[in-house]
Amino acid sequence: MSGTITVRVNEKIKAEAQALYESIGLDMSTAINIFLLKSIDMNGIPFNVSKSFPNKETLAAMDDAENGKNLSGPYKSMKELKVALNV
Question: Which BP terms does GO give this entry (predicted)?
Answer without folding.
Answer: DNA-templated transcription; regulation of DNA-templated transcription; single-species biofilm formation
